[in-house]
Structures are given as structure tokens and as C-alpha cells.
Specification:
Low-confidence stretches: 2-44, 196-225
Number of domains: 3
Largest sheet: 4 strands, mixed
Helix content: 40-55%
Structural class: alpha+beta
Number of strands: 8
Radius of gyration: 27 Å
Number of helices: 17
Strand content: 5-15%
Length: about 625
């Protein structure tokens, strides 16, 4: 999710383009001395995700120039590190991705030397530049002076710790369910407290919990609606847990940050899953409230109020005023995560309300298509909406940019379109909202060195978020029309997984960059929607099978987060910089400390959501 993007829109120490300098250098001095002892360097001289590179020129009388290019920067221009010898003993280079280094000589007739290498974090390396006596060309070799640290060990240890905690909880629940242990507890403890332990949410789920996330606790077990599916709240809670973790920093690992442009990281998965499950819950909640006798007029007012309130909260959350003092209206960011959720919910819920009935009606419709055929007008509307996205994306004339441009601009595409970031999507936002009202530091600025503002939650991408929510709505209809028919439900989830996967394969050609429409979180491309919906159907299928069919998992601890998703999302944004969610670290250039802080902060929100659940406190809009 992009909560962090919104939060730092006006803060000078947010994800600035200066992060791109981590890929570059610290200028250098003449003939480099012996390998540098990194332990004696000042902390600011070598940062997290960097390595130290010294250049040894063995070509007498020749001046060299070194340039660099990340493997993850598609069709980018080489960026100059500078002439050799450097004023300092070396340069800081990126250790996140493999880097291409090119060494050019000022002597005519000599081919540049190129080397591709993946440097390790905090490693010390030497680039030896020498001459090939047979061809007189330049040769380059990388020598390791000091081995890098294993930056992935903290993840391994964190995994072991959490697995140990879950194993202890599972063992405790297993022991409680053993009859002799249960009898002993009855004898030694208060019977009511023993019942609470035995029926704890860490045990088997119960189908009598509730019927809809929109209903208050008092009407959770009504007999007129389908039982609440814990798998939906578990799915939502899982997405929210990852969302909170990545928004808090994700241990400063690159794969827990948003992708610079095309492709996917872990951080790019959670927001679409949240949109998807919102659509699923919408189908169930509207059906439930219609069964209870609510009129469509009442539900329309509820939809309008919820959409407006989500948008309003979103504007407040993404525009904090403690960074630079009172926020000026001319710099107010308008788009954001909750704003997109509000707009998406308004369209999808309004469309569903227009055709919704109190209960499934399959009269005259074949059983295999009864969750589709009665709603063909909705599908026509969605296809028309997608046609609008395609036409605007590929046919709109964007000044100074090629028609149908989907690239990042900056140094991408050989630097030909530096101010065309996002093509039509970026142009529409800048035209309708104004440059100062959209996100100022997009993820493309880190790798592609873009300079124009671009909002990943912009206007054009909202069209495809509606499509994704509608696919989630389809999952909800499957659950409604085939209630308790587990085989039918899971079969249809599998079919939708395959359909969406095939569409993605055709659009992307199973490639990150070479497809007709690449997977792109910043643009919310249609291939991004089909890919993430395929993942969502698969994940929902697995969770549904484990939680609601086999009941081997209660959904804990994610279930508790899912029951209070809006409260947790808003709370983790508002209290991000407050203790105990954040504290001053002894070493800010350590993945271990960042990971520990981010995991503890996320775990605290899990505990808070559990306490709220036990007290039956839920914030519903």
C-alpha cells in the first residue's frame, strides 16, 4: 500500500531523490591507497544498501572515466561516477541490485571495459583496470578486499522467533483440548475462565460469529443471512499486517519497498488485495442488509456517507502538518489510499445496489452461470469503463510525449522523455489536480531519477481499481450463490485464477518489461489488476479452505486485524512516530534494528486489534 507515499509528501526527510545518490559515489582522490578499513569510516560515509569500491588504474598515462547503470533500470542511460583518479579513496555503490560498470579511456581506439557485478552490503571491493596486451583493450576485474555482511540473516532469525511463538500458542491450544488437561483446568481454575481459554480465538473458528462486517455485534448471529466467513476477515487482516509492516519501513529491505516502475515487490501486493476483499465484503454486506429489510434508499445514503468519510479521512492522513508547520492549501495532496478506496467503493457498491436483490435468484439461469448471467449489465459497464482507460492511456495526446507512453521518464528510454513520467496518467493528474496537489516523490525518482511529480493513487488508475474491486465483488457473489457448497466455491475460485492468469500472460508476454501492457503498480495497469486478482483468488481459496472448510486454522492473528481494519490503518499512520511504535536507534544503518523496530510496531497493532476484539470494540464507517 502507498500510505508512506502520502505521508511524506511534504516532509524534507521522506523518500527524497537523494536516495538515488546511494547508487553513485563519494568523489575521490589520486592513486588509491591500501584497502579502506570500513569499521573506521564515519557512519554517514557508507549507508545501508551500499558497498565501498576502490578503483586501481594500472594503465600509466591514461585517464579513465567510470559510469554505472543498475540492472533494474530498463533502457536507462549510464550515469557518470566521475574521472579516475578520485579525490577520495573510493566510491559508494549500490548493493541492492546488480550494477553495470563501464570504464572509458581517453585514449583513442580503445574499447570501453564493462563489468556486471552484484556488490554485497558493506563489502569492500577493488576494481582493477588493466590492459590486454594482445588486443590493447581495457580489462576490468573485481577483487573482494573485505567480505560483505549477510543482510538477510535478520529476516531468518525473525522468522524463527515468530514460528516459535506460533508453535507455543498452537501447543497450548492443543493441550487445552486434551480431556485430562481440560478436567484439571476445571478443577483448578474458575469454570468461566476455563471456557474462555478453551473457546479462545486461537482455537477452532465458530460459524456463529457474525454475518457481516457492517453489522453491530448484537445482530451477528441472525438466521436470515449467511454466517460470517472468517476467511474474509483473515484475508483482509493479512493484507493489512503486511501493509503496516511495509509502511513502517519493512526493515529497509528493497523488496519491502514499492517497485520503481514495472514489476512487483511484496509492497505492491497488499493494496490491491485490500481493494479486492473490499469488493467481496460489499457483495455480502449489501445482500445481508437487504435481507434484513433495509431499503435501497437507506443503503444508498450509507454508501455515499462511507465514501465521503473515507475520502475525508484519507486527505487528513496524507497531509500531516508536523513536518513543516501548518499546511498551505496550495500544497494539499488530494489523492491517496483511503481516497481511492472511497471512490472505488462508491462506484462498485452503487452499481451493485442498482441490481442487488435480497437473495440469490437463479430462476431460468443455468446453475453453472447463475452468479454471472443475471448481472450482465454490470459487466457491460465494467467493460465500457476499461475501454475508457485504454482509450485515455493509448490515444490521449500528451504534450511532449509519444502517444501511449507507459514509461517512467527520467533517464529511462535512453533519456528521450524525461518529463513524461506515467504518460497519460501523470498528465491527467497534473492537468486536473495541479502539480502541487499530487505526490511529489514517486518511487520512480529513486532509480530513474525523475523530477516531475506523479501520484500512484491518481485519477486514471482509479478506473482499474474499480475493475479489481468488481472482481472481488464476483468472489462475493460466488460465496452468496453457492453458500455451503464448498466444492463449487473452490472450483470457481480456481477458474477465475486461471482466467486472470491467462489474461496477464497475454498482456505481459510473461515478461517484466517487454509486454504490451506491463505489470505496473504506479499506473495500476490492467495487467497489474489481472495479475493481482489472480493472486487474490488463489490466496482467498487457500484461506477459505483452511479456515471455513477444514477449520484447521482460526485465522488468528490476522482475523483480529481484519475486524478493525480502518482503525488499524488510520492508527498506524497517526501514531507512527510515537513510542512504542518508534524509538531512536543506536545504529540507523542496520537492517537488524530497522527490522526489529518495524516488526515490533506491527505486532503491537496485532495485539491492540486483539484487545479491541475481546472488548467488542469495532470502528465501522
Amino acid at each position: 500500500m502507498s500510505g508512506r507515499r502520502g505521508r511524506w509528501g511534504s516532509c524534507p526527510w521522506g523518500p527524497l531523490p537523494a536516495l538515488a545518490a546511494a547508487l553513485l559515489l563519494l568523489p575521490g582522490r589520486a592513486q588509491p591507497p591500501d584497502p579502506v578499513d570500513l569499521s573506521r569510516r564515519q557512519p554517514w560515509e557508507l549507508r545501508i544498501d551500499q558497498a565501498w569500491l576502490q578503483v586501481h588504474n594500472t594503465l600509466p598515462g591514461e585517464n579513465l572515466t567510470i559510469s554505472w547503470l543498475s540492472d533494474y533500470c530498463y533502457k536507462c542511460l549510464f550515469q557518470e561516477l566521475g574521472p579516475v583518479p578520485f579525490e577520495e579513496p573510493g566510491v559508494a555503490v549500490d548493493s541492492q541490485h546488480p550494477v553495470n560498470l563501464m570504464v572509458n579511456s581517453t585514449m583513442k581506439g580503445k574499447e570501453p571495459c564493462r563489468v556486471n557485478y552484484h556488490f554485497g552490503e558493506f563489502g569492500n571491493y577493488s576494481l582493477i583496470v588493466r590492459s590486454d596486451h594482445s588486443s590493447q583493450n581495457i580489462l576490468c576485474d573485481i577483487v573482494i578486499n573485505q567480505k560483505p555482511v549477510n543482510s538477510y540473516l535478520p529476516i531468518f532469525f525473525a522468522f524463527l522467533i515468530y514460528m516459535g511463538i506460533f508453535a507455543i500458542l498452537a501447543l497450548g491450544q492443543f493441550c487445552i483440548n486434551i480431556e485430562p488437561v481440560r478436567n484439571w483446568l476445571y478443577n483448578k481454575m474458575n469454570p468461566r475462565e476455563t471456557d474462555r481459554l478453551i473457546n479462545s480465538e486461537f482455537g477452532s473458528p465458530r460459524r456463529t460469529d457474525s454475518v457481516s462486517s457492517d453489522l453491530p455485534p448484537g445482530v451477528w448471529s441472525t438466521g436470515t443471512a449467511i454466517p460470517r466467513l472468517r476467511s474474509l476477515d483473515t484475508f483482509r487482516g493479512l493484507a493489512l499486517a503486511i501493509m503496516v509492516f511495509v509502511n513502517y519501513g519493512g526493515g529497509k529491505y528493497w523488496f519491502f519497498k514499492h517497485q520503481s516502475w514495472n514489476g512487483l515487490t511484496v509492497a505492491d501486493l497488499v493494496f490491491p488485495w485490500f481493494v479486492f476483499i473490499m469488493g467481496t465484503s460489499t457483495a455480502l454486506s449489501l445482500s445481508s442488509m437487504l435481507r434484513r429489510g433495509c431499503s435501497k434508499g437507506q443503503l444508498l445514503l450509507k454508501i455515499l456517507w462511507r465514501s465521503f468519510f473515507l475520502f475525508l479521512i484519507g486527505v487528513v492522513v496524507v497531509n500531516p502538518n508536523y513536518c513543516l508547520g501548518p499546511l498551505a492549501w496550495e500544497n494539499l495532496r488530494i489523492p491517496g489510499v483511503l481516497q481511492r478506496l472511497g471512490c472505488t467503493y462508491l462506484v462498485v457498491a452503487g452499481l451493485e445496489l442498482l441490481f442487488a436483490k435480497p437473495g440469490p435468484d437463479s430462476t431460468g439461469v443455468e446453475d453453472a452461470f447463475r452468479d454471472l448471467m443475471p448481472f450482465w449489465p454490470q459487466w457491460l459497464f465494467m467493460m465500457a469503463l476499461e475501454a475508457v482507460w485504454l482509450c485515455l492511456t493509448f490515444l490521449l495526446n500528451v504534450p511532449g510525449c509519444p502517444r501511449g507512453y507507459l514509461g517512467p521518464g527520467g533517464i529511462g528510454d535512453s533519456g528521450e522523455y524525461p518529463n513524461c513520467t506515467g504518460g497519460a496518467a501523470g498528465y491527467i493528474d497534473r492537468l486536473l489536480l495541479g502539480e502541487k496537489h499530487i505526490y511529489q516523490h514517486p518511487s520512480s525518482s529513486v532509480l530513474y531519477l525523475t523530477t516531475v511529480p506523479f501520484d500512484p493513487e491518481g485519477i486514471l488508475g482509479t478506473i482499474n481499481s474499480v475493475i479489481l474491486a468488481f472482481l472481488g465483488l464476483q468472489a462475493g457473489k460466488i460465496l452468496l450463490f453457492y453458500k455451503e457448497q464448498h466444492r463449487q466455491i473452490m472450483l470457481r475460485f480456481c477458474v477465475w485464477t486461471v482466467i486472470m492468469g491467462v489474461i496477464s500472460s497475454v498482456l505481459t508476454k510473461c515478461s517484466t518489461e517487454e509486454g504490451v501492457i506491463p505489470v505496473n503498480k504506479n499506473l495500476w495497469s490492467i495487467s497489474y489488476v489481472t495479475t493481482l486478482s489472480s493472486f487474490a483468488f488463489t490466496l482467498l481459496l487457500l484461506i477459505y479452505y483452511l479456515v471455513d472448510v477444514k477449520r484447521v486454522w482460526s485465522g488468528a492473528p490476522f482475523f483480529f486485524l481484519g475486524m478493525n481494519s480502518i482503525l488499524v490503518y488510520v492508527g498506524h499512520e497517526v501514531f507512527e512516530n510515537y513510542f512504542p511504535f518508534k524509538w531512536k536507534m543506536r545504529n540507523t544503518q542496520s537492517h537488524s534494528e530497522h527490522l526489529a523496530q518495524n516488526l515490533i510496531a506491527t505486532s503491537l497493532w496485532v495485539i491492540i486489534s486483539y484487545v479491541l476484539y475481546r472488548k467488542r470494540i469495532f470502528w465501522k464507517i
